[in-house]
Amino acid sequence: MNLLIMGLPGAGKGTQAAKIVEEFGVAHISTGDMFRAAMANKTEMGVLAKSYIDKGELVPDEVTNGIVKERLAESDIAEKGFLLDGYPRTIEQAYALDETLKALGLKLDGVINIEVNPDSLVERLSGRIIHKETGETFHKVFNPPVGDYNEDDYYQREDDKPETVKRRLDVNIAQGAPIIEHYRKAGIVSDIQGNQEIDAVFADIEKAIAAMK
Hints:
The protein has helices spanning 13-24, 31-40, 44-54, 61-72, 75-80, 91-104, 118-125, 162-185, 198-212, and strands at residues 2-7, 27-30, 82-85, 110-115, 128-131, 137-139, 154-155, 189-193. The chain is an alpha/beta fold. The strands form two sheets. A five-stranded parallel sheet has the order 2-3-1-4-8, sandwiched between helices. Strands 6-5-7 form a three-stranded antiparallel sheet, with no helix packed on it. Its EC number is 2.7.4.3.
């Protein structure tokens, strides 16, 4: 079973990816892990990626695509299948993935698309507050400080402020839309409602995967 999981930041993609890997025994291929492994193993693409990272530059698409191809060519993929997580991030990378899979004699069986209302994600992602003295982290909604608390004693990181979170989500939505559309045309997208309990989301994912077989 070869899968791709998609979803906005805060939609629970990481949690569900871990559950899919545990339940179905597929190889979890996340961008960060791939880069770290390629650089540690000093593969051709790993060495190239490190040369950009060491200079503080963005790794070009052709290098990222090359690292993905190296990983998908490894022997465990043919045995277990894979779950791609965090790639492709752009429509150009999606086209490159199509070519890579074709060249390796593989195919994508399905795309798990976890849908959550962006407004609820802003609340979820921008609620983090940090106590100025202790550095302890809380969440205004899901894990507030006990009792009445003075907001002046807490601060928010720039990344956690609602306007920053909304901008990040808007970028993700704009980048993700053409990728989802690309796979919809292939008829392999399963939309999963993410505004549910974790186990209920996973139950829907299991049903979607069963329908792919």
